[in-house]
Design brief:
The structure holds two protein chains of two kinds. Chain A is an all-alpha fold. Chain A has one domain. Chain A contains eight helices and two strands. Chain A has a two-stranded antiparallel sheet. The longest helix of chain A is centred in the N-terminal third of the chain and has 52 residues. The two termini of chain A are 33 Å apart. Chain B is mainly alpha-helical. Chain B has seven helices and no strands. The chains are: A mainly alpha, B mainly alpha. Chains A and B meet through helix 4 and helix 7 of A and helix 1 and helix 2 of B. Chain B: Pfam families: CA109-like. Chain B: This is Pentatricopeptide repeat (PPR) superfamily protein. Chain B: InterPro entries: CA109-like, OPRN-like.
Chain lengths: 294, 195
């Protein structure tokens, strides 16, 4: 089996002595990249949870504002303009939380980009010619014959490079898919908490095909979430990104408290991230590498 | 006699530790119950597809969201079971203290006569009082354990909000462990703490 792999992935260049030099460098690189994957994962989860707090605060401020006119102010209703003033206050609060939520989302995009980038830096390529006395390695290929996988040999005890890459891919896919779903939630939340007559125009800015912040689409390109044909974000799905969803725009209409609750529940459920599987992947990798990632 | 009395008092110190452990479990159970309830209360809302707003465009969102909540609920239920096992552990430990104390009356080199067990010197409790107190505390906790475990097994994702309110109240109240009665027992055994 192993012999076969060697033959397929890299026909020439790999000699026993070059493998001997390659393996320690490849091991060091994989340990580094997987440590980064782990810390990015942790960051992602904590920012997602910050985002949840910000989203909750935004929804609360919005509901308070919405119900202010019907609120019983008791003795305070004698005060001139009390209703207008409190409404204004809640509007300001919403604005603050909206910005905070956007910044959480922006951080999530950034971290998802970093996660995607890690996928392409698993392999380890020989640098310079084989004949030079000092052999160096890097993440970029100089030589078209060098696949950077040591010809498919095991890197640590039994897994070839490709297996590490498959697991990393599986891991990153979950976060990318969830980012796409979070984007839908962002659009939904921003739209439905922004239904005042005065800001209707602003509300129109929050739609699926517009950038939520300047430069968002450039960032999303790194995660493959931008369709190459349309130049717009691909539709969010669950587990299966191929199926087609049509984003309906319901701007302006007042959504119920329950709908907002469902949005928040969907936010913190991290539907596309199977935490057990994530833990399993890291545990398997640690076992294979015989190190504790940190 | 004094030696024997001292030994019984030491048992009360162990009881105090066990009760502190009970209180910790009690707090944990209440917070676990609270988490379970917030999921249970959310479920009807999640089951109604008209509450999905813009998320309706995502195929299977309904089932996925409910499924995830159910998994979390299941996880909370199993950690509640673990808490119940710790309650049982406390009850068993209290039971052992009671058995040991009764054993000591019947056998052992210091076995007192019936009269001696009734004897009180000054404000000090009699040995009989010590033994009875231990038994009373054990009985309270055992009864409360049975109540709690039947309450917990009554909670499911289909529980109505009225049931939940009633269960929550009973869980908080711990009706089988009247705090003042427990205090009274401790006051009798450790009169020096009262004065």
């Amino acid at each position: 089996m192993m012999e076969n792999l060697t033959a397929i992935s890299s026909p020439s260049t790999q000699t026993p002595s070059s493998i001997r030099l390659w393996r320690p460098a490849a091991q060091r690189n994989l340990r580094n990249q997987w440590s980064k994957l782990l810390s990015r994962k942790t960051q992602w989860m904590s920012i997602a949870s910050d985002g949840r707090s910000n989203a909750t605060a935004l929804v609360n401020a919005h509901l308070s504002q919405r119900y202010t006119p019907q609120m019983d102010f008791g003795v305070l209703k004698e005060m001139p303009g009390i209703v207008e003033k409190s409404t204004q206050k809640f509007t300001q609060k919403q604005e603050i939380w909206r910005l905070k939520l956007l910044s959480s989302y922006k951080d999530m995009v950034k971290i998802t980009c970093h996660l995607s980038e890690l996928l392409s830096s698993m392999r380890c390529f020989q640098k310079g010619s084989c004949s030079s006395s000092i052999v160096r390695f890097s993440n970029n290929s100089d030589d078209r014959n060098d696949m950077g996988d040591g010809g498919g040999v095991s890197v640590f005890s039994s897994w070839p490079m490709s297996h590490f890459e498959e697991l990393a891919q599986e891991l990153v896919d979950m976060f990318v898919l969830e980012l796409s779903f979070k984007r839908l939630l962002m659009v939904s939340l921003l739209l439905s908490t922004n239904c005042q007559e005065s800001s209707r125009q602003q509300a129109d800015a929050f739609c699926w095909s517009n950038e939520l912040y300047p430069g968002e689409f450039d960032d999303l390109t790194a995660t493959n979430l931008i369709s190459k044909e349309s130049g717009q974000p691909i539709s969010p799905g669950l587990q299966d990104p191929t199926f087609n969803t049509v984003i309906t725009k319901t701007s302006g209409s007042l959504v119920s408290r329950e709908v907002l609750q469902v949005y928040l529940t969907a936010w913190f459920s991290n539907l596309n991230i199977d935490m057990n599987r994530v833990e399993d992947i890291f545990r398997m990798v640690e076992w294979e590498m015989q190190v504790k990632l940190s | 006699m004094n030696v024997l009395l001292k030994r019984y008092k030491q048992k009360y110190n162990k009881v105090r530790d066990d009760m502190a452990r009970w209180d910790q479990c009690h707090c944990r159970l209440l917070s676990q119950f609270g988490n379970a309830v917030s999921i249970i209360e959310r479920l009807p809302m999640l089951m109604d597809s008209k509450n999905y707003g813009m998320l309706k465009c995502v195929d299977g969102i309904n089932d996925a969201l409910i499924g995830k909540q159910m998994v979390s609920l299941q996880r909370i239920f199993s950690s509640m079971k673990e808490t119940m096992a710790e309650f049982l552990d406390v009850v068993l430990s209290l039971g052992k203290i009671v058995r040991d104390s009764q054993q000591q009356l019947k056998s052992g080199s210091l076995s007192p006569s019936k009269q001696q067990t009734q004897l009180r010197i000054g404000i000090s409790p009699s040995i009989a009082m010590c033994v009875d107190g231990l038994k009373a505390i054990y009985d309270m906790h055992q009864a409360e354990y049975l109540l709690k475990s039947s309450l917990i097994s009554a909670v499911s994702w289909e529980s109505s909000s009225n049931d939940i309110i009633a269960i929550r109240q009973l869980l908080i109240d711990q009706p089988n462990i009247p705090k003042d009665e427990v205090q009274l027992i401790f006051n009798i055994i450790f009169p020096e703490d009262v004065c």
